[in-house]
Amino acid sequence: MQLKTLALAAVTVTIGAAALAHADVENPVVKERMDLMGDIRGAFATLGGMVQGKTAFDAEAAADAKATLEASAAMIPAKFEANEMDPESEAAPAIWEDWDGFTTMASELQTAVAALDTGSLESVQAGFRPIGAACGACHQGYRVD
Ligand code: HEC
């Protein structure tokens, strides 16, 4: 009973921390694009866990993660189109100064995700690196740290 209460408390704390991460973001447009990146990170982490051997390979979970990444990558231009800012945002002005370059980076992520074969651990390992490279390339040019 006590253990169960403790476990529940731990879950509540974790969810609370995730919700708090963006508690200070007041601009709803910025919040939405951060949430989109959060979904992308979640799916990417699912694949990363398998690639690194932290979780067992699961073809269904890998296919789900791929579907989430495909859908989310396709939404990047729409979610970033409005030139909106918030003190919490890490978006660089280059996004709107060089919109074509930014959307090209989003397409490159889509291409890398489309090429991912989720059928085996080996194929996920092979396709994971280009996806990570596409994240990094866009962050380097269009996100300030
Ligand atoms: C086309 C450009 C682009 C691509 C591709 C991209 N990102 Fe981002 N990402 C951004 C920008 C810009 C921000 C900053 C948004 C803001 O703070 O307003 C960001 C923010 C983030 C954040 C922080 C979100 C937050 O809560 O503040 C995470 C995590 C993230 N990206 C993960 C990823 C991962 C993982 C990938 C690849 C699977 C990826 N991104 C691909 C542009 C991109």
From TrEMBL:
Descriptive protein name: Cytochrome c-556
Signal peptide: 1-23
A Gene Ontology cellular-component term: periplasmic space
Species whose genome carries this gene: Pseudooceanicola marinus
PTM annotation, UniProt: Binds 1 heme group per subunit.
Chain residues that bind heme c: C135, C138, H139
GO-annotated biological processes: electron transport chain
Entries under Pfam families matching the protein: Cytochrom_C_2
Keyword Iron: yes
Xref: InterPro entries: Cyt_c/b562, Cyt_c_II, Cyt_c_prime
GO molecular function terms attached to this record: electron transfer activity; heme binding; iron ion binding
Keywords from the UniProt entry: Electron transport, Heme, Iron, Metal-binding, Signal, Transport
